[in-house]
Design brief:
By secondary structure, the chain is of the alpha+beta class. Helix content is 23%, strand content 29%. It has two domains: 160 residues, D-amino Acid Aminotransferase, Chain A, domain 1 (2-Layer Sandwich); 166 residues, D-amino Acid Aminotransferase, subunit A, domain 2 (D-amino Acid Aminotransferase, Chain A, domain 2). Strand 16 and strand 17 form a beta hairpin. The structure holds 2-OXO-4-methylpentanoic acid.
Amino acid sequence: MLGELDISLEKAGELKQKPADDNLGFGQHFSDHMFLMEWSRKQGWNNARICPYHKFEMDPASTVLHYGQAIFEGLKAYRGKDDQVFLFRPEDNFTRMNEGAVRMSMPRIPVDKVMQALKALLYLDREWIPKVEGASLYIRPTLIGVDQYLGLKPADQYLFYIILCPVGAYYAEGFNPTKIFVSTDYVRAVKGGVGHVKTAGNYAASLLASEEAKKAGYTQVLWLDACERKYIEEVGTSNIFFVLGDQVITPPLGGSILPGITRDSVLKLVSSWGYQVEERPVSIDEILESAADGRLKESFATGTAAVISPVGELFYNNQTHLINKGVTGGLSQRLFDELQAIQNGEQEDSFKWTVRVG
Ligand code: COI
């Protein structure tokens, strides 16, 4: 047992070969251990354990495989000076996961216990936290329904687990302007649905559009609203921002877009820097008109995996529209530098976002 936690610990007999920190890519390597716990309607959460990373044996009838009861989170651990390890707003991720669990008729996770388990897991696998600048340890908490039952109802049994994955930049472009395809054929989510939940099906539903965009030479898709195909929602797996004159604008959280933690951090940072910030509906026409008349200064996407990703070009209805001449804007660069410095513990954290774990 680990202290008073009632979390058992089984260490891996043999440790894996670690990849080189300067060539990690995203999502390809997994650390030596994982955290796992089970939930049943009778017992609640039980059998919490840190154990060697391993494959699951699953019943082919498992609820998650048929009816998609699956939600996940993405957060990162950073190695700062003197080998100190930091997490960035981890409780916000687990709170968001619990909000998603309610929408998906799944059990809520005990945030305090999961935080303690995560810290213990990170301590055990601390050598997996990359040492090079720009790389980090991506943390993927996941909750799935695992009943052996084909009738449609919320599962009676669930698995919650956390796996760890050393990562570099999410996009091949790194921190360089991306080319974005505005989708007019497909939509991502509708209000009243589950667009605000980090649930697996949202990502599956986005794949065809993003594959088509990639084939046409674009990094990602910009989603428009499902009703009028007029208002901007998200870009790929990230939230989107525009700098119009002195204003920083992002679409409001209305139920169809993800309440990003990086989005919230950017809103707070730019307000504290004196920018006028607006969360309001923004149409694709407004953006293209302001790109043409020079009011649109820059645009960037925000997310845990990609952090800040400048947008250099939008392709809409067979026309290309350059943003900031296709180069990274000053605010994108400032936000990227500032967020990284806070996350690595190099910059004063006046918002109290970072949690030191070692
Ligand atoms: C994240 O930004 O953490 C995500 O979950 C996006 C994922 C597709 C990598």
